[in-house]
Amino acid sequence: MKKSLGIRKCLFPAAGYGTRFLPATKAMPKEMLPIVNKPLIQYGVEEALEAGMTQIGFIVGRGKRAIADHFDNNYELEHQIKGTSKEKYLDDIRNVMDSCDFVFMRQREMLGLGHAILTGEPMIGTEPFAVILADDLCAAPTEEDDMKALGQLAALYQRYQCSIIAIEEVPMEDTASYGIISGEEIADGIYQVRDMVEKPNPEDAPTNMAIIGRYILTPEIFDYLRKTKPGANGEIQITDALRALAQDRQVLAVKFKGRRFDCGSVEGFIEATNYYYENSYKSK
Fold first, then answer.
1. Per DSSP, what are the bridge partners of residue 183?
2. Which of 261, 218, 263 is nearest to 125 (CA)?
3. Distances (CA, A) of 69 to 63, 85, 102
C-alpha cells in the first residue's frame, strides 16, 4: 500500500439499477459485474487503497447485499479451498479486507449522485474525502507508473487544498452524456473551473472536457448539496453543487494520466475486459 496522501475516506455511490445491463443486473448489482475475474467495485476499492484511503463507504440501495458479502469472509468457500492451488485467487480481496474498514449506508430514494454523496455525510464528517464511481474503470498510465487517477488527484490535493475533479476530453457529439467544465488552464492539464454544465447538448457545451467518476471533495460540498435544487432528470446533481462552490472557492479540474473505460456501457465493458485480460490476467 502506498503512503497516505492525507485523505482517509472514500465514498462509492452504488445504489443505481444498472438498467443498461439487464437482464444480468436484475438480481446482481452492476458493481459486481466482473472484469475478467474481479468485480468492478473491487478495482475501485483497490484504487482508493493505493491512494492511501482505508475508510470505505458504500452508498447502496435495495438488492446490493452482494457487495457487502464480497468484502466479508466466506467461511465455507475458504474452508473448501484452504491449502489448495486455488487459495491464491483470494489474495487480492483478502489484502483489501485486511487493509480497509467498510461502512454501508442506504440511499432510500434514487435522487441523483449529489443526493447519494449527501447520504454519506455522517461517515465523512468534516474531512476532505474522495468519491469513486465504479462504472468508470481507470487503468494506470503504464506498468512502471501505477499511480491511477484517484492517487493523482489526492497528490494534487496536498498542493492546492481544494476540491478537485478528474476530466478527459470526449468527442463533442458525446457531451450530452457527461458533466462538462470550462475554465482557465493554470498548469499543464490543470484547470481553474469557472463553469460546469450537466449533460449539455453539443451545440450548448462550452468545451468537450468531461467530468469522469473521480473526485476529491472538501466537506463544504455538503452545505452546497443541501441548497442544490433538482436539475437534469429531476435529480440532485453534484455538478450543480460544484458549480456553486466554484463561484465561492477554488475548484480544479485535472486531465488525469491513464486510461478510462466506461463500464456503464456494454461496449466499454467489453473493451475493459479485453484490455485487462491482455495486460494483467494473461501475463500472470
1. 193
2. 218
3. 12, 23, 11
Where do the domains of the chain lie?
9-281
* CATH homologous superfamily for the domain 9-281: Spore Coat Polysaccharide Biosynthesis Protein SpsA; Chain A (3.90.550.10)
Give, for 225, the enclosing helix (H) or strand (E): helix 221-227
Q: Indicate the pTM of the whole model.
A: 0.91
Separation CA 96–CA 46 (nearest Å): 7
| pLDDT tens for each residue of the chain, 284 residues long | 344 448 999 999 998 888 889 898 888 899 999 999 999 999 999 999 999 999 999 999 888 899 999 999 888 888 888 889 888 888 899 999 999 999 999 988 888 899 999 999 999 999 999 999 999 999 988 766 678 999 999 999 999 999 999 999 999 999 988 889 999 999 999 999 999 988 889 998 999 999 999 999 999 999 999 999 887 677 888 999 999 999 999 999 999 999 999 998 999 999 999 999 988 765 55
Please state, in angstroms and rounded to a whole number, the distance separating the CA atoms of residues 107 and 59.
6
Q: Copy the grid coordinates of residue 91.
A: 489474495
Task: Tell me the residue type at 223.
Answer: D
In 10 A of CB 23, how many CB atoms? Answer: 7
Contact present, 12 and 116 (Cβ < 8 Å): no
167 closest CA partner among 142, 190, 185, 188: 190
Closest CA to 152 of 194, 214, 208, 96: 214
Measured between alpha carbons, how far is 53 from 45 in angstroms, rounded to an integer? 9
